[in-house]
Design brief:
The chain is mostly helical. The protein has helices spanning 14-20, 23-39, 43-77.
Amino acid sequence: MVERNYEPPANWMEWEKRYFTSYDSLICEMMGFLQSQLMDTRPGLALGFIALISLSVPMATAMMFFHFSEMFKTALDGLPGLN
């Protein structure tokens, strides 16, 4: 069995040191709250949110790729001898 050091590192901020020991219980409590809220939600609304998130992440990625490619093309247009 692996032993864990329950003392936080000295370079951490005070709020990190306070929550270090109770991190697991806080996460479990938050996940329980989220699960209870989702169980009380209508299935259609929950599926709508899932669809919205699953469509918005690829769209945002595509938009970022488009903008980065435009910035790259603009940067290359400024270099001499590539036209």
